[in-house]
């Protein structure tokens, strides 16, 4: 287990990882559907919605009028002879007249009775159609997404999502689109409008800080005016030269930075590496983090090991940027640095060779980096010799890429050389800094510095722990065999590598991270790079880009706009009731298992009972004092955008280091503005933000639909506590073996079924297969979550009564069928081949495979849709099931 692994193993699991598309209109759409007998107004004419709290509407509009109009337009067949007879009073004529009148009256009564019956039946059937605005909106959305010509037993994804992409086109600025992304875009528009509004004294100070950061991000004229000066200032602050030595250039006397360049001190890679970590939270060469001890969450531990690869800045964390970095890593590391021959001076340059041998993404990257450095050089010295600069840039990139490749290779070698244990707990190593130093010195002593004690002194500088030398030198850290092997080898590599090469790597990495937050011309270069590398045609509007970034940093302050007392009074109790139903459903499924022993069942149910839930938003969010205290020490300025970002990240890092001697509080895993849900293993808690408690995940009109959507998400998060990682943590959030050995063996046997099943799923558009091992935890959560939600809905029906209202236009489906249709609609998506390849490295399967995997394992689905054994959605082989 490496430090990267622990994000999934030790921290959180979530439903999914969206933005930037127009919202579906939230009104009844002009559905072109055939009328159903007895429903004379069914979506063919406008419907006046007068919905009730339970989602059953009253037909007070056109539905009743149409029925009455239809009945009143019927002609009673009364054509009996009635001539006027004058003067003759015969008994025959009187008798005949009486018969005619009696017959006419009888016919009239019969006609009236028929009309009454027709009206009664029509009104009864009409009243069984849910006409609330929620039902009408949901019905319209489902109908326009579905392809009802497809047999649901053959391809349920196409049945529920076959036309979704037509109604939800992918924005040019992204490579994929789904419901999560669309609704996040909706939230971001709300956030943007809020951040645009004036700063007032009535709002908490923290909200004003967020709005100030947004203004700094939006002032592109000022960013262009300041040019690259803030960037140069930070390079110097981080101990990096204005001109890396690999460029072999000297600033002219006309450069405004010539004095600073003259004062450049000798480069110290350890000082620079730690300073970058403290200010950008970016791992370069050495991975560092602080998190709860997996065996005792009341203690925090410092971890050292392989470097994380995520970006430091939240502005660089959207899916497109993540995909770009992943493609970049795959291409830049294709060539093995061990095969390089530095003695061949005349050979093809490494840059050109990489561009020739690797993908379009690598070619695009090298072009982008060259252009960025060229613009940088022209800024720091307009009189730079262009020919010399071209040669220098080639050498700088060559050195930086070489170090990057070697670090990556050492990381892979360490992971491949140390086979992970079946139990991740066995891979956790506690070691003192001195012992780590001894391990490191095996091959390089006495040349090396006491690197680890020095590293810790530098990183704790300025914190309340800085003066505690005893803590620093005798500190026990947490790591793993793979991490120790990596640290040994990387220090050996650093010892024998020219300092200029390490400098080039740190300089390029920092430049790439910061340059996006400078001028318009630099951002344009990056947009062109993304277009070539991953195929995006447009860029995200600046206003949404800034809103998203501010939300990532000031998430709680930004969520102030989402806090709503009505949510607490009306929606929160209903969601809590649903979660309670799902928890009871899970407990019943556990009790019914035959592979768990009684003691393990009891402990599992106890963990479920004690699982904490954070739903909507924290109660303190509307308390100005509490919200201000949450961001105390974080400062922003509308005229210093780059400084705002770096200062905030630095503040977060210092807060983490200062508080590392205190237990990590159990609380919200994310801000309320995040359209997602999370499970935190070490807190035994789930977080369900208010942002996901909206259409199309909730408020769908019928409880069958709600349980099929948000209910399955709640079940998914609950089940994460018992997936292949979550089951290792007890009810207190500590990693202990709390299941019996026999139960563990039975569990592992069942997980192998899931691995084999999902590994057989083929993505035809890219000719690749799903990684069943990588996606195991999410697949267990998907399968368990759906089943728990299904039986939770049955509990709801048993206790609250059957839902009688039908969904307009979809009356021919039962409520349990609507449950599955709602579940299927949840995973509708569209994506480019590049996004599909990127998804292969994600712990979540693509939506189509998530749906196929869950439903083909579901006997409940097969019964509900009457799918024959052997059909695609009800395969004849044994079904995979844990819960």
From TrEMBL:
Cofactor(s) this protein requires: Zn(2+)
GO molecular function: metal ion binding; metalloendopeptidase activity
Region described as Disordered: 334-358
Keywords: Hydrolase, Membrane, Metal-binding, Metalloprotease, Protease, Transmembrane, Transmembrane helix, Zinc
Residues annotated as domain Peptidase M13 C-terminal: 676-878
Domain of life: Eukaryota
Entry keyword Phosphoprotein: no
Protein name: Uncharacterized protein
Peptidase M13 N-terminal domain boundaries: 152-618
Protein family: Belongs to the peptidase M13 family.
GO biological process, one term: protein processing
Any Pfam family the entry gives: Peptidase_M13_N
Membrane topology, record value: Single-pass type II membrane protein
Subcellular location: Cell membrane
SUPFAM superfamilies for the chain: Metalloproteases ('zincins'), catalytic domain
